[in-house]
Amino acid sequence: MTTLQIEVEDSRPVSACCDSASLRVTLADGRVVQTPLWWYPRLAKASPEERAAIELSPMGLHWPRIDEDISIASMLRGQKAPGAKPPIGGR
Fold first, then answer.
1. What domains appear along the chain, each with residue ranges and CATH number?
2. Alpha-carbon distance 79 to 69, whole Å?
3. What is the pLDDT of residues 73-87, one digit of tens each?
């Protein structure tokens, strides 16, 4: 098995959830990645029900009701969606 295969397997999401402030993903190797919801404007504007309908894939997350996709790699890099701006007075 190559190093890339090991890293992809270890980085596979096994659970994910959103609240009004953050996206939290648990990876297969036990790491927990949490990012601010404002990084993903489409997800931040979605209803709690829309945010709860998450599909996991080996490389990331998909919200079918709002057609949003976020890769685990982008979360680990700290990559925000284009145009994402922190809330006024926020970080």
1. 3-77 (3.30.2020.40)
2. 13
3. 999 999 999 999 998
